[in-house]
Amino acid sequence: MNIEDFRDHCLSKPGVTEETPFGDNTLVFKVGGKIFALADIIEFSSINLKCDPVKALELRENFEEVQPGYHMNKKHWNTVAIKGNLSNTILQEWIDHSYTLVLNNLPRSQRLTLNVPSQ
């Protein structure tokens, strides 16, 4: 996966915005004002994704590319190395999981204003 594929996949989700609140080098994707994915634009060697805590531990045990979230809450975030044996399909599934997790934690009224039902 390259930065363009990552960006396109994140932006294909309903209600997603992109920002650079941590500086010009860090691309952040949000739904309902809440972060679900971020990456360094220049290096693009890894991405940070929100994850269910139980699944996060499972992924870390099964994939060497998955580590506790760098500069994030280690219980809820993973840092995923892009260079490695992970397919685009797996990365997209994990991005989708992160998006859905954040989306479903938004109040129903906010999801409705985004025209995004629970998934």
UniProtKB/TrEMBL annotation:
InterPro entries: YjbR, YjbR-like_sf, YjbR/MT2646/Rv2570-like
Transmembrane segments: none
Cross-referenced PANTHER family: CYTOPLASMIC PROTEIN, CYTOPLASMIC PROTEIN-RELATED
Protein name from the UniProt record: MmcQ-like protein
